[in-house]
Amino acid sequence: MEQKLFTELRSLYVTTKESPNEIRIRIRMRDLIDSNIFRRAVDTTMKRYPYFCVELQKKNGQYVFAENHRPVVITNSLHGVELNSDASNYHMIAFCWQDNWIILDVFHGLTDGTGAYEVLRTLLYYYCSERYNVRLKEESIRLVGDEISEDEWIDPVTNRSNLPLTRRNEEMSDALNLVASAGLENDRRHTVYSIAVSESEFMRFNVDNDGSPGTMVSLLLSRAIANLFPDAKDTIRITLCVNQRNALNAPLAHQSLVGGAMLEYKDEMRDWSLQKQGTAYRGMVFAQTIEEEVLMGVASMKGINGLLLSKESDRERLEVASYINSIANRVITATVSYVGKANYQEAEQYIRDFRAWTSSASNGLTVEISAVNGKFTLDFLQNFSSPIFVNAFLKELEKNGIVYDLQDVNELELPNIKLPWTE
Question: What is the pTM of this model?
């Protein structure tokens, strides 16, 4: 089945070699990886997700995803392969492994964290069942033999016609730019700091302070930035990613359906208690995640993709995407993303560490939150190496009695995506 690109367009046109727009999920298992079992598990898994077994093609000036029957590539390395190239059999998804790590790489325009988690639930079910010779529960896991409904295939945005009109707001004020504020313009080493905290302890802290994982991490990050730059004039504004599926009534959709709630750390809030600040951030999220507000965001996204589609050349589309991206970067200080509890079911007992990586926001910093096997992992994804913001955030954790483990620091390495206009 051929799929015309629409929702995927902006993701396609903002990806670059320096900042490939993809999701990389790294999972450290309890034991060394059995490569033969892993190969079988990947092959079986991909039979369940035919809409991810596609090749990017251009027909009559329009990009499409065409069926790709070549095997999905697995490599024995931590580096992965270039997506949409001969090395990946022209897939936009690939896997790799080394020692006890397995890695999924997928183009972020093809899906989002919610969709990637579904693939991994299936993969871990098949891999762990055979690797440990156990019968795992199948509840809430997509398996080969399931009927794949149209609701998984169809883009819920393309033909949606009853979207609310986007509200004309006054131009949003500039947000504090982390790179410029900290003088990091010449520090271009993309880096990820991974921090772990107890899931039960952090959830208890959230309950005590009227927070949730996404809002609380956003708030603690806002407080950390405010302490670093107390005299800054620009607004500290965190974007908290929002899953648009519920508002679209499309819970099974595989596309990348992510909007954002803007959380401003207002001057009058700074002297408030943490609990009162938590209540304020929760209120901001609530107000921006009611159905009509989310659908306004969908309408805006649909308008942008329609604008891109109206341009005849890749060059024109790249210019439009770059301009829109520059506007977004101007009004956002940092981004926080939380897909939700992973729920890898019984397979979680075989998982030791979990990392969710994407390209860091081009204005500096993205924090990806994962909840797997009893702990939250916070991946600070930066387009610079300085620990200034990580250290300030850790001070906030310490001040609030939250025990943490800085697990490791890595180069933020993401495989390239080969693009048609760069050939």
Answer: 0.95
Q: How far apart are CA 20 and CA 266, in angstroms?
A: 33
Answer positive or negative: Cα dihedral of 339, 341, 344, 345. Answer: negative
Query: What is the chain's length?
Result: 423
356: DSSP letter: E
**CA separation, residue 107 to residues 19, 188, 224 (Å):** 12, 23, 32
- pLDDT tens per residue, range 107-152: 999 999 999 999 999 999 999 999 999 999 998 999 999 999 999 9
**pLDDT digit string, tens, across residues 173-225:** 999 999 999 999 999 999 999 999 999 999 999 999 999 999 999 999 999 99
Whole-number pLDDT of residue 290: 96
Phi, psi of 415, rounded to the nearest 5 degrees? -60, 150
Structure tokens given for 74: 């697995």
Element (H, E) at 161: none
Cα separation, 158 vs 4, whole angstroms? 10
d(CA 33, CA 101): 7
Q: Give residue 180's region: left, alpha or beta (phi > 0; psi -120 to 50).
A: alpha
Mean pLDDT, residues 161-173: 77
Residues pairing with 354 in the sheet? 27
Helix (H, G, I), strand (E, B) or coil at 36: helix
- Strands 334-341 and 365-372 come out as parallel
Residues 188-222 as b/e (b if ≥16 CB within 10 A, e otherwise) read: eebbbbbbbbbbeebbebbeebbbbbbbbbbbbbb
What is the sign of the dihedral through the CA atoms of 185, 186, 191 and 194?
negative
Separation of alpha carbons 395 and 401, rounded Å: 10
**Residues 163 and 174: beta-carbon distance below 8 Å:** no
pLDDT tens across 343-372, in order?
A: 898 999 999 999 999 987 667 899 999 999
3-state class percentages of the chain: helix first, strand second, coil last, to nearest 5 = 40, 25, 40
Would you say residue 252 has pLDDT above 80?
yes
pLDDT of residue 161: 85
5 closest CA partner among 200, 174, 318, 255: 255
Contact (CB, 8 A) for 25 and 104: yes
C-alpha to C-alpha distance for 318 and 53, rounded to whole angstroms: 26
The three-state secondary structure class of 198 is strand
Predicted confidence (pLDDT) at residue 270 exceeds the cutoff of 60: yes
